[in-house]
Amino acid sequence: MNPRIHPDTVLITGASSGIGAxxxxxxxxxxxxxxxxxxxxxxxxxxxxxxxxHHAVRVEVMPADLTLPDDRSRIEQRxxxxxxxxxxxxxxxxxxxxxxxxxxxxxxxxxxxxxxTAPTRLVRAMLPRLLSQARGTIVNVSSVxxxxxxxxxxxYAATKxxxxxxxxxxxxxxxxxxxxxxxxxxxxxRTDIWERAGSSLDRxxxxxxxxxxxxxxxxxxxxxxxxxxxxxxxxxxxxxDAINEARRALxxxxxxxxxxxxxxxxxxxxx
Length: 271
Hints:
Structural class: alpha/beta
GO molecular function, one term: oxidoreductase activity
Low-confidence stretches: 1-6
Number of strands: 9
Radius of gyration: 20 Å
Largest sheet: 7 strands, parallel
Protein name: SDR family oxidoreductase
Order of helices and strands: EHEHEHEHEHEEHEHEH
CATH superfamily: NAD(P)-binding Rossmann-like Domain
Keywords: Oxidoreductase
CATH topology: Rossmann fold
Strand content: 5-15%
Number of domains: 1
InterPro entries: NAD(P)-bd_dom_sf (IPR036291), Sc_DH/Rdtase_CS (IPR020904), SDR_fam (IPR002347)
Mean pLDDT: 91
Pfam families: adh_short
């Protein structure tokens, strides 16, 4: 067991398959008890049985559709009141095919509820307790599309950009209080999210597609290394640091008394 990860109970959303299920496998192997959240109870039950057969951990399943307020409220209450849960992995997410002019608005609303509203509310339910205990970990699974929204049509990239900004804001709030924040930005990963969105991995070159076990192993390594932002595919972390430094350099110039010269119309002498 890696000594840098405490064997606390971990609640994982979107845990029935893909990235969430792999997080469950890796963390169970490290000795963590788990609470698995997803819509499909049969998949959760099968995963829980497998994990408990192979590891000396307790695994509880909580079937829930996090786009539904009542279901979401049950998970919030558990996070708020269970002192054993000291790690939250906000992994549940969905994509919508088609651009903003074509996508079904109700499906887009459901995506925002799952990708944005749910992680925000789950963090809010848990964060006061973690701050009072001065320990705990929150992991938000975003996407590299947070950095490249022009590469994907529709609103999906915007929801993932939110998770990046949200995590950066969280980090400032918890700094010095013993709580760790990480946001993970996967690229293309071999999961079933593509088929569920009506797309296919076949449209990507093979060297762009990461296997889910390698993605999760990299994410956990980044967490152990204390990274706020983990981009598993990025060879040189200095490139991200350079972007972030350039962004910070803009801060003193983003709110000034007067508009920039290029926006100020010339005023004629007789005006």
